[in-house]
Specification:
The protein contains eleven helices and 13 strands. By secondary structure, the protein is of the alpha/beta class. It has an eight-stranded parallel beta barrel. Residues 1-26 have low confidence and may be disordered.
Length: 362
């Protein structure tokens, strides 16, 4: 039978409509009986952990003792699930390296792909596994770009103000009063992409972060919101004159080696530039370097701004130690660069061996 192009198009449209209706049937049927969001059951936690809070420019536990967080980023849970690497044994290995905290980078595309309810199940796993090994967690909304203009570096980072607000509303409600989750990193790396993402300005960015903090605090005040500065979370200079006007917060920094560009590459010159751009903030506020690391120029995934010969490691650790800056190295994964492990047997890379040694120090 001969079918005209009009009829064929109409037929295809009807088929598509039926498929769409079938896929959305479960969403529309009995919508009035869909359950309300639920909170994480803290009875599932085996170990009692202290809440961590902000006191002046320090992180402290419930007894008032200062806490310095040292740990690693792992890959997005969505990536690890697809590679069959999302497991308690991964957390056990991280603990064996001396870490007391793990950062979970959650990409917007991964959040949508897995779906909120299923993603919650995996975050629940992370909470229980981290608690079992007496480690804390940072939940990181892992986007790169300028959120107020909704322009991003890559499609994996695409999000909206509504999605970001809803993410933190749902996360903070589900995990309220869970001590294992110590930090909420509101937005990974703010940048206007050299003008391609609009024009970033601090008052606008400050307002966005204060709104997100208010949303989180409406559910949970026993958590530390973490705010990043511009230039891919490197530049905190606006904080000196116009800090975030909310209590209990800390600031994030990603001080990769090629961010500072002194004419003479001496330790003293690097220290001077780091102090000028972000280190100064540690005098008044807690700082957490939630990404740092390096790879040699001929190493896997070498790219600006992470290329270094290895001298960066001892220098950045010394600088942060003098200012009580907590840190979380990037990344405990053999695929994403700069890598800390070269395979899933957890063979350390150059920077992996260095950070492992640092974490194991008393």
């Amino acid at each position: 039978m001969k079918i005209t192009s009009y009829a064929a198009g109409l037929f295809a449209l009807l088929i598509s409509a039926n498929i769409f209706a079938a896929n959305n049937k479960t969403q529309s049927d009995n919508w009035w009986d869909q359950p309300y969001p639920s909170v994480f059951d803290t009875k599932k936690l085996k170990n009692k952990q202290s809440f961590i809070s902000v006191e002046g420019n320090k992180l402290v536990d419930e007894s008032g003792k200062q806490v310095i967080l040292k740990g690693v980023n792992i890959a997005d849970p969505g990536k690890l699930l697809k590679q069959n690497q999302w497991s308690k044994s991964l957390f056990k290995e991280v603990k064996a390296w001396g870490a007391n905290i793990i950062r979970l980078p959650i990409h917007p595309v991964s959040w949508r792909d897995i779906g909120k309810d299923n993603f919650f199940k995996h975050i629940d796993d992370a909470v229980q596994w981290a608690n079992a090994y007496d480690m804390y967690l940072i939940i990181d909304w892992h986007s790169i770009g300028y959120l107020p203009k909704e322009l991003y570096q890559h499609q994996m980072y695409d999000t909206t103000m509504k999605e970001t607000r809803t993410f933190w509303k749902d996360i903070s409600f589900r995990y309220k009063d869970v001590p294992t989750i110590a930090v909420y990193e509101l937005f990974n790396e703010p940048t206007d992409l050299g003008g391609r993402g609009g024009k970033a300005n601090w008052p606008e960015w400050k307002s966005v972060n204060e709104e997100l903090i208010d949303i989180i605090y409406a559910s949970d005040t026993n958590v530390i919101p973490l705010v990043a500065g511009f230039n891919w979370a490197y530049d905190l200079r606006p904080v000196a004159i116009d800090p975030i006007e909310r209590e209990g917060i800390a600031y994030a920094v990603h001080p990769y080696p090629q961010k500072a560009k002194p004419e003479i590459k001496s330790k003293e010159n690097f220290f001077a530039l780091w102090e000028q751009v972000w280190g100064f903030a540690a005098k008044k506020h807690p700082l957490i370097a939630t990404e740092l690391g390096w790879v040699k120029a001929d190493g896997k995934g070498a790219h600006i701004p992470v290329i270094n010969d290895g001298s960066y490691g001892p220098q950045i650790i010394e600088f942060m130690a003098k200012r009580d800056v907590s840190w979380v190295a990037w990344v405990f994964d053999p695929d994403w660069s700069p890598t800390m492990i070269s395979d899933w047997n957890f063979t350390p890379t150059q920077q992996g061996a260095f950070f492992k040694k640092e974490m194991l120090k008393k």
